[in-house]
Design goal:
The structure holds two protein chains of two kinds. By secondary structure, chain A is α/β, with parallel strands linked by helices. Chain A has two domains: 2-258, P-loop containing nucleotide triphosphate hydrolases (Rossmann fold), CATH 3.40.50; 289-385 and 451-577, Rossmann fold (3-Layer(aba) Sandwich). In chain A, helix 3 (111-123) crosses helix 4 and helix 13 runs parallel beside helix 16 (434-447). Chain B is mostly helical. Chain B has a domain at 106-316: Orthogonal Bundle (MetI-like fold), CATH 1.10.3720. In chain B, helix 5 (100-134) runs antiparallel to helix 6 (140-149). The chains are: A alpha/beta, B mainly alpha.
């Protein structure tokens, strides 16, 4: 018995530049109680397809062809319902759990009111006592205490709690189908595991079907029964999760699966390191970067506890700083870039305190230390062609020997990051994809021949298939161009592959550090172990733990407060953590 | 949330007092920089009225001592602050010897009544229309008409006043031409008097509403577009809530918050705001009082009116500071 059937559904977006076919001829059924994963990259039509079932397509999109049947209705094709009939289907028959956990709740309404208004909208007058009982059941179901959480406002909850409230809203009317649109993408892995387990738990309890939209193959493998792989609006492969993961048929599925970095798995980088480029000189005895008892406090909150390390420039290397949001890793990045001064201690670059430099030294520092940030969309000024972003620092730092030389340098830098210059140069940022933009940012940094690159989550906003490419570009900077790199990330698997040394940060303390094969391959600290066991691997035989495990992991975090002693696991030449 | 902590209240109150003090000081300093002597000016008016004035020097000295201008500056200042804080603004020089406080006391209710009513009407109409410009369920006709109505925003209030006057008073004779109430009506707490006031106040209020609602509508439109794109609006729709409920409880409720701050700031301005509207409708409010005082260099009145304006603004901001945490739970008292 199927709940929902997509029959030859196509979705078009008429724009001024012609019709965009967002989804083409998709047919798919969701059986009762089964979990279906929609996986694909941005623009693959996975969210669009699911939203069509709720008739909530963003304007001007519309279903140009096909039928969507919700079988528990009298007349089943939802495309023929009136607006009022459709309104009654939402939440009661099909509920939606949105992506943006942070902003999905009305900031000026109490949590319980936001559960009640949904019930009232579908059932009319319900007594206060009954409403309270229903919201209590819903909140209890997702592991939240209704007495505490009910009267709170959204800003008083953590991201994970907010997302669990969204799940409570989604299941409070026992819908036939739950559509969860990347419900955990804004959460850290430990919280993600708990939220995902909660969702599976309540979905199984009410026996609803589930469509889980996502881009993370590992999360899919651990969460769903069947996977639908979408690419550019087409369903390229659909099958049981084990078949998709273990014996993918379509080349695109194979590519998606092989691009997921695994701890201990095969490296996606060239096994043989590339030879250093000519003219690469090693530094003298002074360390390239040194932190001396650097501490950062914001008011009464300590973002970073005293930290000291030295990194010499003799042999370029990649140091990874991993941790969850709030661990202090981005604070470290901005301290090393000199955007923030430490509260105590000093940051030295080539033996000079970067917060006490003369204007000339500061300029040299800016040239030699480059940054790549998370958001490839926000890094470009939308009013200039991308050339401007590449050219401007190059010319300003006096590296240009004329217009021809600049163009040559730009083209060379583009090729170095695997972009064909003629396809990207001369265009505006909005005409390029996120992956292209992020590679251009790497190219821009490369043009200045820096000594140190600080990359803060450089691939977290880029589609999975491109992550490997961009990380490879960054890795090449080390081997071919002799640039040392500080790689800041929450993604342990990529850190495992690219780095020479890993520091795991928790609440501003280093809890474990050493070569990646030790730290990530065989973690010793409780926190590192928690992190690694919370990662959903695209490996069906690897257990993701029970909901109880997830809850106890989350609770275990608070017990960690006591044991902040760092576990140091071996050293590498040229880097010393004190 | 909950009760307002005493420390927060003290903090806000001291800010309020400080603002008012600094403003009062500025009001005192600025006219003294002009170098004009109000006593001579008063004498000049007496001379103009009565032809010539005998023993002018004596009268001048007497006027100076009456006005307190023979005292040292610091004494003048402290006296001024003391008087101002007790709402004693001295005597008008132009309508000597009427106390300024009496003049302001007579004018303020008219302005507050007229302006507050028009501001409140504008606030509601403007914000509602702004919201309707964005709401997806607004009838198509409305969506076409509202932006066209924005044209009125570009008309100066004096013109809109004259236009309304011409159409509704002179031509249609629906509303009276000027004055705050009917000539044959005795002021008092009677229904007759109130209806007369409303009847007379309608055109001046409308002339303000017509030209200022666009300010609120355009501001609201921008805020609504932002709110419309928020995830909570999407989720509200996915919850199958009724469209009107979403409009009021999810969209307007959030979009209105910055507008409330703007509303408080407007209260202060509105006391002096529509000087010309009051002037053309011969409405005896603060605007007209200020206008007349400037024409006759009546410093005590100018100072008094300015002080009241500043006091109103500061009070309005103070009130919003107190009230805001109750309308936006993300803002807390204290901190």
């Amino acid at each position: 018995m199927t709940i929902l059937d997509f029959k030859n559904v196509s979705i078009d977006f008429p724009t001024s530049k012609g019709v965009v076919h967002a989804v083409t001829d998709i047919s798919l059924s969701v059986p009762e109680g089964r979990r279906i994963g929609f996986i694909g990259e941005s623009g693959s039509g996975k969210t669009t397809t699911a939203l069509a079932a709720m008739r909530m397509l963003a304007k001007p999109g519309f279903v140009s062809q096909g039928e969507i049947h919700l079988n528990s209705l009298g007349k089943t094709d939802i495309l023929n319902l009136t607006d009022e009939e459709m309104r009654r289907v939402r939440l009661r028959k099909i509920s939606y759990i949105p992506q943006g956990a942070m902003n999905s709740l009305n900031p000026v309404m109490r949590i319980e009111n936001q559960i009640w208004d949904g019930i009232i909208a579908h059932e009319g007058a319900v007594t206060d006592v009954e409403l309270k009982r229903r919201s209590d059941v819903a909140l209890n179901g997702v592991g939240l205490d209704p007495e505490i959480v009910g009267p709170l406002y959204p800003h008083e909850l953590s991201g994970g709690m907010k997302q669990r409230v969204c799940i409570a809203i989604g299941v409070c009317l026992d819908p036939d189908l739950i559509i969860a649109d990347e419900p955990t993408s804004a959460l850290d892995v430990i919280t993600q595991r708990h939220v995902m387990q909660t969702l599976r738990d309540v979905q199984a309890k009410i026996g609803a079907g589930l469509i889980l939209i996502g881009h993370d193959m590992g999360l899919m493998a651990q969460s769903v029964d069947d996977i639908a792989v979408l690419k550019k609006g087409e369903l390229v492969e659909f099958g049981p999760v084990r078949q998709i993961i273990e014996t993918p048929q379509h080349p695109y599925t194979q590519e998606l699966i092989s691009s997921v970095p695994l701890v201990g798995g095969e490296s996606f980088l060239d096994p043989a390191p590339a030879t250093p480029a000519e003219g690469f000189k090693t530094e003298d005895g002074t360390p390239l970067l040194e932190l001396r008892n650097v501490t950062k406090r914001y008011g009464s909150v300590t973002a970073l506890h005293p930290m000291s390390f030295t990194l010499d420039g003799e042999v370029p290397k990649i140091i990874s700083i991993v941790g969850q949001s709030g661990s202090g890793k981005s604070t470290m990045g901005s301290l090393m870039l000199g955007f923030n001064a430490p509260t105590e201690g000093e940051v030295l670059f080539k033996g000079r305190d970067i917060n006490r430099q003369s204007p000339d030294e500061a300029l040299t520092f800016r040239k030699e230390v480059q940054a790549v940030f998370q958001d490839p969309y926000a890094c470009f000024n939308p009013f200039y062609r991308v050339n401007h972003t590449l050219k401007f620092p190059f010319e300003r730092f006096g590296l240009s020997k004329g217009a021809d030389h600049t163009t040559e340098a730009m083209e060379e830098a583009c090729r170095a990051v695997g972009l064909a210059p003629e396809t990207v140069l001369g265009r505006y940022p909005h005409q390029l994809s996120g992956g292209q933009r992020q590679r251009l940012i790497v190219a821009r940094a490369l043009m200045l021949s820096p000594k140190l690159l600080i990359a803060d989550e450089p691939v977290s906003m880029v589609d999975a298939s491109l992550r490997a490419t961009i990380l490879k570009n960054i890795h090449d900077l080390k081997d071919r161009h002799g640039i040392s790199i500080i790689y800041i990330t929450h993604d342990l698997a990529t850190a495992y592959h690219v780095s020479d040394y890993v520091m795991v940060l928790y609440k501003g303390h280093v809890v474990e550090a050493g070569p990646p094969h030790d730290v990530i391959g065989d973690p010793q600290h409780t926190y590192t172990q928690l992190l690694i066991s919370s990662i959903p691997w695209p490996d069906l035989d690897r257990d993701w733990g029970s909901p109880d495990d997830a809850r106890s992991a989350l609770e275990g975090l608070s017990e960690l407060e006591g044991q902040q002693e760092a576990i140091l696991r071996g050293t590498i030449p040229g880097f010393k953590l004190a | 949330m909950g009760r307002i902590p005493a420390s927060y209240l003290m903090n806000r109150l001291s800010t309020l007092v400080l603002t008012v003090l600094i403003a009062a000081t500025l009001i005192w300093i600025i006219p003294r920089l002009s170098g004009l002597d109000p006593a001579s000016a008063a004498l000049g008016r007496m001379a103009a009225g009565g032809g010539s004035v005998a023993n002018a020097d004596e009268i001048l000295a007497q006027l100076r001592s009456t006005f307190g201008l023979d005292q040292p500056l610091i004494v003048q200042y402290l006296l001024y602050i003391k008087n101002t804080l007790t709402f004693d603004f001295g005597l008008s020089t132009a309508s000597f010897p009427t106390p300024v406080a009496t003049m302001i006391g007579n004018a303020l209710p008219w302005t507050l009544g007229l302006m507050m009513i028009s501001l409140i009407i504008t606030f509601f109409i403007g914000n509602l229309l702004g919201a309707l410009m964005v709401w997806e369920h607004t009838p198509k006709l409305w969506k076409a008409v509202i932006p066209a109505a924005m044209v009125f925003t570009s008309i100066p209030p004096i013109l809109s006043g004259l236009l309304l006057m011409y159409v509704f008073s002179t031509q249609l004779r629906w509303f009276p031409l000027s004055g705050p109430y009917g000539l044959n009506v005795e002021p008092g707490w009677t229904l007759e008097f109130f209806s007369s006031v409303l009847y007379h106040g309608f055109l001046p209020a409308m002339s303000i509403v017509v030209v200022t609602f666009g300010f609120w509508a355009l501001g609201m439109r921008g805020l609504m577009i932002t709110v419309q794109g928020e995830d909570y609006t999407t989720l509200a729709k996915a919850k199958g809530l009724r469209p009107r409920y979403i409009l009021y409880r999810y969209m307007i409720r959030n979009a209105i918050l910055p507008q409330i701050t703007a509303f408080a700031l407007k209260i202060g301005l509105l006391v002096a705001g529509q000087v010309l509207v009051e002037r053309i409708f011969a409405y005896p409010g603060m605007g007209k009082l200020l206008y007349d005082a400037i024409l006759t260099q009546d410093y005590p009145v100018i100072q008094g009116v300015s002080f009241v304006i500043i006091l109103m603004t500061a009070l309005a901001v103070f009130l919003v500071d107190l009230v805001y945490p109750f309308i936006d739970p993300r803002i807390r008292h204290g901190g």
